[in-house]
């Protein structure tokens, strides 16, 4: 991702995400999908305390307000699936979770008909790849914080 393109990256609310951010992209069908909504809320809470930026890209035409009511992460509505195409996610019901390094290079991905629900593993992968400074956490602490958020 070039410096010029990083400056142009923003969600529908105008929140910018730059190349220096380590990014987890979630490609979802839309907030109307209960599985997608569960994944987005899980990752939104789990990554908030980490040095990972979450960006949600939805294949539906939901508005920025609809996303802002449900999550803190920047969101992009992509009904024509241009973003999905750029990342090689083909198919109407394809969910994708991608980990991008600080240069925008893809380091890891999970795709399929069901959303990837293991936020703790994405954090571990980022730590193993040396993409973020190791953060001490335990699975039970993350699960406890998620339970308290509900």
Précis, in short:
By secondary structure, the chain is α/β, with parallel strands linked by helices. It has six helices and five strands, in the order αβαβαβαββαα.
Polypeptide structure, described:
There is one protein chain. This protein has about 150 residues and is of the alpha/beta class. It has one domain (about 5-150): Glutaredoxin, CATH 3.40.30.10. Helix content is about 35%, strand content about 20%. It has six helices and five strands; from the N terminus they run αβαβαβαββαα. The protein has helices at about 5-10, 35-50, 65-70, 80-85, 120-130, 140-150, and strands spanning about 25-30, 55-60, 75, 95-100, 105-110. β1, α2 and β2 form a beta-alpha-beta unit. The longest helix has 15 residues, at about 35-50. Mean pLDDT is about 75; it is low at about 1-10, about 10-20 and about 135-140.
CATH architecture: 3-Layer(aba) Sandwich
Largest sheet composition: 5 strands, mixed
Net shape: globular
Low-confidence stretches: 1-8, 10-19, 134-138
Q: Give the H and E element order.
A: HEHEHEHEEHH
Q: How many beta strands in the DSSP annotation?
A: 5
Question: Strand arrangement, largest sheet?
Answer: 3-2-1-4-5
CATH class: Alpha Beta
């Amino acid at each position: 991702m070039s410096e010029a393109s990083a400056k142009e990256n923003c969600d529908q609310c105008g929140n910018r995400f730059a190349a220096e951010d380590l990014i987890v992209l979630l490609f979802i069908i839309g907030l109307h999908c209960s599985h997608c909504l569960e994944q987005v809320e899980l990752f939104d809470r789990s990554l908030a305390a980490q040095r990972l930026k979450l960006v949600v890209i939805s294949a539906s035409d939901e508005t920025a307000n609809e996303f802002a009511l449900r999550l803190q992460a920047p969101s992009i509505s992509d009904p024509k699936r241009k973003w999905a195409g750029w990342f090689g996610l083909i198919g109407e019901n394809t969910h994708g979770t991608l980990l991008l390094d600080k240069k925008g290079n893809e380091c890891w991905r999970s795709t399929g008909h069901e959303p990837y629900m293991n936020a703790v593993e994405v954090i571990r992968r980022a730590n193993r790849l040396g993409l973020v400074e190791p953060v001490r956490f335990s699975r039970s602490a993350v699960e406890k914080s998620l339970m308290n958020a509900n």
